[in-house]
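**Archive record**
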Amino acid sequence: MNTETIDTGPMAEGTLNVAEFYRDATVLVTGGTGFIGKVLVEKLLRCFAVKKIVLLIRRKQNVSASDRLQRMLEGPIFDRIRSTAPDAKELFAKVVAMDTTFEREDIVDDVDKAKLCNEVQIIFHVMASIRFDEVLDDAIATNVTSAKRLYALASSMAELRSIVHVSTFYSNCDRKYIEERIYDDVPYGGLDHIQQFFKTLSPAEKERMTRLVLGDMPNSYVFSKKCAEAMVGREFGNLPIGIFRPPIVISSYREPEPGWVDCFHGATGLCVPVVLGKTMWYYGNPDVKPFMSPVDHTVSGMLAAACDIYRRQCTILPVEKPVPVYNFTFEKNRFTYGDYVHLVGSGLQTPLDRWMSRIKCRISPWKIFPQILLWLMTLQARVADEILAWFGKRGSNLKVVSAITTLANAVEYFRCHMWTMDNSNVKRMLALLSRDDAQRLDFDGEQIDWTDYHKSYAKGIAMELMRKNHRRQQQCRKASTGFLGKVLVEKLLRSFGVKKIVLLIREKRGTSSAQRLQQMISDPIFDTIRASAIHPDKVFAKLVAIDTDFTCDEFVREPYRSDILKEVQVIYHKDVNVIQQSKTAIFKQVVFHVMAAVRFDLGFQTILDTNVTVPERLYSFLRDAPQLQAIVHVSTFYSNCDRLHIEECVYDDIRFGGWENVRQIINPLTESERAKLMPAIISPLPNNYVFSKKCAEVMIQQKFGDLPVGIFRPPIVTPSYAEPVPGWVDCIQGVTGLSIPTLKERLLWYYGDPTACPALTPVDYCIAGMITAACDIKARHEQNRVRESFDRRVSTPPVYNFYFDQNQYSWQQFVALVGAELPTVMGRKLCNIRTRITRWKILSRITFWWMFFVAYIGDMVLSIFGKPKCNVSLVSGLRTLADAVEHFRCHTWTARNDNVKRMHTLLSKADKALLEFDVDHMDWKEYFKHYAKGLSMELERRELRRRQKKKLDC
């Protein structure tokens, strides 16, 4: 190719005029949710007056493009804009998400395609698969084919000024000297031929062929990037396009904040052991000088490159115009890998940590020393994980060591080789910047003070580790079952003539309200409706989803807020609110509030916010409902379990000045300070869950006694008795979870009082009681209005202890009933020996130790065959559950249940057939036949979902 060119434009300082280039421009970005992409979007919003930023975002794990964008904008990288820009909302409104599917030739739909072709002026293609161990055809599909389809679309863009194709400096790492040009020397007949013969290969053949085709190239990532560059030069040289080659991209230098990082790939991931104070030696040449660039410098270079590509397009007259290439590397001011480890350690907090890091982390030219240390680290991690497992904790040390080892091996090639290069185009860009643009786009790598840079480097990694741990805890806290709520919705759809059920659903783990509604409908609990209804689609069409956010006072936005207050009925559950209009007066204007955080080990503030503040917001909102007739607040029978006899009344005996004063005390405290105070505040109650339920009852009595509200107290809720199918269950908590070892015929004794009698109720009986209580609350409220007109004192709110004591079984009898349904004769005979409730805590501990030992051996065998280990984690979860409900296995309570009995006597025969909830007349032996079968079916469903998820992940 003849690359002779004639530059007709000025070459003086300020030639690029970057600020004007981006003014009122529409910028298209792929990979905008990644590490470099986030910084690019943030920089464009904060420093340039762009008109719009369009992000092409793929749906990922059922999370839509708009949801992924919203989640990204809520991240800490945009905190600087939120805190400094007075028009932050207007700035964020410039960012638009567009659904994209790079697996198709048309990556967007026709409507979006028309918008892009008419509006887009600048394109940054940042998206890439950076996995080094990917099969070659998969890497090519992501890194080459996706780019090809994007640029084919760009060919139709009328206003297009510039395209920046982000590659990597190592795309030609099989050469020692790398020039700023495209090397079109793809072996084996070129890219098209490689793609063609890979189509006919099996997965095993693809892996073997990948290693052969790569040749001197270290991995499929850099090879695919080389192929992408060759494709750009060969097929899209007529476009205003340039190739930008960044080296190893690391944490930010100054923007948006020093040391910011949100991923642990490459060099950053290998520094995690330094920050954590671990010992880790890596094989490599300590004298090798790597090319590294802070992410903010990289993004500034990309922004300048886009402007330079446009300048070249307008001012360079070529004989045959080449695609400009920018090697974003700087020869001067480099450090060695040996110095790099010391520089990272210099940012640690204490002098001892800084000194010890020089010994603990090193780059060794002899492979045997890192290998020996790796064996010792693996042994140490395995021992640590096993010790944690014995105490019922879930260890992750071995997993961390394995991940770091895999990463170290993947980038070993780059620690052993050194390159030289030409970067004339990058230097020319620097010279063409005006003073203002040079301040706005600081990317001169030769001016970086690496000592100053690494002062924030370790801190940034530590901050991201904390954020990842916090997100992991939030994911665990969001886990919920919807056990009661699903049965309630199913019962109303199947047994009552509802007109519409509107579900107020919060987003959960990136899944929208509409998606969660579809997931709920697909649950087996609705199979009865599907089988019995003539038109089941019409039945399910009555369900409508609305997004809800209970973390703020305005938890429902307009126009839905006004519509809800005008609707007839609201049914609200943990993650689902239902508003229903019924043909029968019995269900008019009724609210069922079932939402609760049921984990006993949640943080004090979290559980009070969920179980007290949320119902407070809901009931304040319902004051404006003009035709409200009843609210059923679902509490728990154990909200006052510090008493052995529980009346049907609210006990306002919260210590430390009452629930409002407790909330004021804990608000300014840290989480650790709250954890220290919690036992003293909740005493003598056993956990913060029942304490929060007690606070909610007192709050209702004090603030909402004038509303038609009643408190419904169910005991331990177990699988269904008859509806929708006998034995149905979809959560494994409390008593249900503790029954699993019995069904699995495992040896496990629980500490408790074997003669104590638990209060149990099937979920369908509980739902029937709640629906009946709603009718009773309405009738009582109307009677109270009459009494108040005669100045009579009225007690509110009514309390329903859903407790029955005429047909009880002890804990040991409960275990025997579950074991009586085992499939084998020997299993039934040995059940009373294998599973027991014992008064001797030491016996319970011994059996748990035995369970952990067996689980450990099982996981060892699985690891030998390369299978995922789960036994220790299962036993750990069982141990946590057993400890959480220990208090309830050691005591027996009595209670008044006059209101519940009265409700049952007032039901007509037809209503009793529709709403059966008299637990005193249940046949427990018949019930437990279905109990064991239903729990076994739920375990099978979970195993099936796990396998399906594994297949999707693969």
About this structure: The first helix runs from residue 18 to 22. Confidence is low (pLDDT under 50) at residues 1-10, 473-481, 568-587. Residues 477 and 602 are 7 Å apart (CA to CA).
